[in-house]
Structures
1.
Amino acid sequence: MTTFRKQLFRRYEGNPILTPRDWPYTVNGVFNPGVAVDPDGSTVLLVRVEDRSGVSHLTVARSRDGFTDWNVDPHPSFKPDLDLFEEAWGIEDPRITRVGDEYLITYTGFSRGGPLVCLAATRDFRSFERRAVLMSPEDKDAALFPTRFDGRWALIHRPVTSGNYRVGTHIWISWSPDLRHWGDHAVLIHARQGAWWDADRVGLGPPPLPTDQGWLVLFHGVKTTAAGAIYRSGLALLGQDDPGSVLARSTEWIFGPEADYERTGDVPDVVFPTGWLLEPDGDTVRMYYGAADTSVAVASAGLSELLAFVHDHCVCGGSHQRGEPCPAAAGGPTRDG
């Protein structure tokens, strides 16, 4: 078995890269950004910004190298429409998927009925078009795949079961011919039970990342302790042609709160990845995440190491053949829980 360091992602030494002090207007916290690459190669972050009223909006920040010298829009870039039922209490946690020359943005609308999944689109991150409500309350942590499968779009998302996290809150996949009508809903990754890091509640991190072995997924698990909840992240691998098939799932978490800016803030002990991209070298994965619901940070890892880890540390203990669905990876009780 391959030996790895405790955490595969290496934090940027200049973290956090964006804090409320970097904003040109008064805010409370900046966190959970979606990420994209401009045609000129610049990194674009669509950052969740919570103002001092408690309501969140989205603001664009740009950088040539993706680490330093961020240019933040002087005003909110995408504001909630408070007259809409689905956005009455704000908009949160965008994930960005590029399809052709358009960027499709799934985000959480904080409605009067609870969180739900909305879709917007942009071509330049200067103007935004609302498209549809994709999933009704309570639902969040959603992202689209950048390609269709047999003519259908696939959405990963996280509904809340019966309004109660403790009965198990799982990651689902749903299908649509037109990005409006959704069906064939199925659980993709179950939350495990017991003392495991991903027991009771799991949710998608960044959009799925295409690799030559399948779609790599980074997902969070929430461990409830006597001192509060701890958010950590682990890996899963989905079938290349059938993303509803889970090929592997890591039994261990690979990234968790460690630095001071991750352990202290509005919500302590939270690392919450919402965007990642593959560098031109074809192996370096750059991951952007919210730290303690207060600031934005970045960490990098090798794609080859991530793929090796999810196989070598699969919940089935390596009992299935690589490239075939793992019978223990998607859900239900396993030898690990």
2.
Amino acid sequence: MTFFAVVVRGLLRRPMRTALTLGGISIGIAAVVALVGMSRGFEKSWQVGLKARGTDMVVSNMGGGLTPKPFDAAVRDRIAGLPHIAATCSLLVQLTGIEDSDLMIVSGREWGGFSWSNLKLISGRMPHDAAEKAVVLGRTAAEVLKKKVGDPIQIETTELTVAGIVQGGALVEDGSVILSLSLLQEILGSQNQINAIDIRATPGTSEEQLHELSRQIQQLFPHVRAVTVSEHLSDSEGFRMVRAMTWATSLLAVIVGVLGVMNTMLMTVFERTHEICVLLALGWTRARIMRMVLYESALLGLFGGILGVTLGTIGAHLLGATPGMRGLLEPDLGLPLLGLSALIAVAVGVVSGLYPAWRSSRLTPSVALQSG
């Protein structure tokens, strides 16, 4: 019998216990894949949305929330004339419940600003002007809210009309309710308040010039931050908190998997004491005994990781398709994340097997004679 056959036979000795251990590992790895994939997908959807609008830099006050804090709209007028700025567009963005949807992006955009230009009509029309009590819906938002052109839509206490359905070129755009900035300010009672300014740089502006522009804006207005699109979400305390909570929750699930594998391997060592002692008597070295136990625990981790990656991928896609999440994000499940999750599973197996492997290597052949 080959060394690998001995390892596999050890796992198949108690198939139900092995299956339960694989289940514990797979749940932990599935949590890593699903939670981290959803978190990354949320950030990616916002970044792609900004790029779809042709935004090069964002001025905002990203505090501890997922949306920026409001500030005075006069900031836009004072920075519009700075060097390397081709156009600006003020926005007021909220994450709020709309009718039957618990969470929806409501985007109030400066009328005539460039952030309207990426919207392509699928049906209906654009609002006639900034004062018309009308909205356009991204195609995903229209599906989630079950709205068509001409239907009423309730935002806070104000009833508006769906003027058109649009495609925005990004998931976050397609999942938004879009209306004029002045109309949303009136609905929310936030006159002269905005929470973001999209900046489009002049053609040929270098990265160094953008950073210099950022420095100038922050000197003028210390209470806001001007950052490039790629830096916008990474500098947000809210998104950093979401990432930290995601990994913390995943770590707890992984720790449960570690304890499950360690328990299984210890039970295996206790049950196979006679067998291990016989192998030692036949000439197996203590190092080889340790490798046998570690290979068994590593295989448990590997198979649990494969199962966990599969379950996590399915779970993330199911979560992304729920009414509460649809239109806000789609999971970012790239090969790096899936590969990292599988490596974590193998590491869980190896770490969990270290003590049982050491324990097995301390046995002596005389124990086999004593146990008969």
3.
Amino acid sequence: MTKPPYKTPTVDRALAATVKESKAPAISRAAAALRLLGKSDVPLGLQAIARELGLVPSTCLYVLRALVVEELVSFDADTKRYALEAGILTLARQWLRRNQFPDLAQPVLDRIAETFGVTVLGVQIVGLDHIIAVAVSRSGATIQLSTQVGSRFPALISATGRCIAAFGDYPEAELEARFRTLRWDEPPTFETWKRQVAETKAQGFGVDESSYISGVTVVAAPVWKGGGNPSHALVAIGISSALKPGNVAALGEALQSRARELSGNLTGA
């Protein structure tokens, strides 16, 4: 049985807002269209894409035609629907060649997943905007919590967000503004969340027990590629009833230890 560890963000609001507020609308529209098609399990028609992105259909058609020419999007003349094209792999391949983290993290994720019976992610942190799953490992447990490489989530959500706030240099006012936009199953107050952020900084890893998703525990530890704010994080996700309190602490310590080693490998220390 497979369940998603992170809830899918509301695509139309998030992408449409990005396009509307951008100072480079042409680029934002193209990127939003690619993200939307990447999230969809099926090809989409012009009207559906335009509606999700908050675009006039004629404008949306112009963007899609340009992406088809660049071989980043395909168009099926029979169904009149669009999907990602293989050209997107060229861009992904170049990123994978220069980014060490997924290769270095994968064996670490595999060991932790097997030892603790959880799903483990390696995520890249993009400031306070979002995190992106760049490596995934799943245990052999009957009930699995899974996500896909490339999935994006709000930066400050769950245990990872507590790590970003605890170890990053961000003004409290900005953290609070971002916090107010997050969606939780059992939302903490900002004051409670701040106390949890302080605990995260003290112990070196963050824990979210059922706040983000009811019945799910998320544990995360920060990774640094250089100085400044964390660049990545290791994130473990499991069913709360299957994780005893002692196991949560042991899991957090294992993540913290492996994250420290990864940081050394990434920085050459």
4.
Amino acid sequence: MCGRFALKETPRQLAEHFHLAGGFDFLPSWNIAPSSSICSIVADDAGSRHPRLMRWGLIPSWAKDATIGNKLVNARGETIAEKPSFRAAFKSRRCLIPASGFYEWKAEGKYKQPWYVSLKSGDPMAFAGLWEAWHPKEGETIESCCIITTDANALMQPIHDRMPVILTPDQWEAWLSTNERKPDHLLPLIRPHDSKSMQAWAVTRELNKVGLRNDAGLIDPLSGTI
């Protein structure tokens, strides 16, 4: 799964890296949790990429209320083409979710030790995501998203059995395309990222203090990189 991540890049850095048309302001965060307003990237019919702020936790268009989003932070890649909560978005509302790195918790006896996982290159990751627009009976439309997960790669296996799907730059166009709707073309993109290009290390348990701690020190290593 993916229940917490960091995004330390500036809006300008993201615009340059993902070749975005237009931009918006947001603050870097080292402790992004579900239900937060997060940065996502969508494409229009011409293929231009645009940044959008969305709520993390997918609210399907047919939902009776927004609380279902609390349970739909992640979508298992193996079932997104069939699950009612995800199949419509998988066909036509796919997005990228930028992240500097993500956190996962490793069970160590009575405790769970958080680890920070990122790319060795230092580039931001592009999580494969889905998004929806939910129209409540009263109030404004809520755009929301979720992160797709897959089996852990060799780096992640000692930490956790799942990880977010991380797309490479050559896969972004196909994933974001509004014209591509065939599952047999999209499902091959949902696979573990190359472990040799990634790194991970243990970080402070103060990461668990959502809302109380949000600074660059959260990703400082406690021990050696693996």
